[in-house]
Amino acid sequence: MTSSWRRTIGNVRSFVGNATGGLRGGPNLASWVVAGTLAYFLWIKPAQELKREQEEKAALAAASDPYRYVEKRKPIPDPQETGLIYGNKNRAKKPEE
After folding, report:
1. Is residue 76 part of a domain?
2. Which of 12, 49, 60, 67 is the most exposed place for a label (fewest CB within 10 A)?
3. Average pLDDT value for the chain
C-alpha cells in the first residue's frame, strides 16, 4: 500500500518533468523565463497596445462630435411583460375578461 502512493507521486513527477521538456533545475527555470518573456513581447504587449489605441480613437471620436446622441439613463429591468421600462411608465394593465 505504501508503494502505491509512492509510485503515483513518482509517475506525476515524471509526467511533469517530461511535460516541461525534461530539464531540471536552473536550465528549466531559465527556459521558462525566456518563453514567458517572448510570449509577453510577442502576444500580450501588442494586444494591450492595440486595445489602448482603440480606446484613444474612440475617445477622440466621441469628443469630436458634440451633438452625438448619448444615452444618459439606464433602463430598469422589468422581467414581467415589456422587458425594459424607462422612467415612471410602470402602469398596471386592466385585467382581461
Report:
1. no
2. 67
3. 77
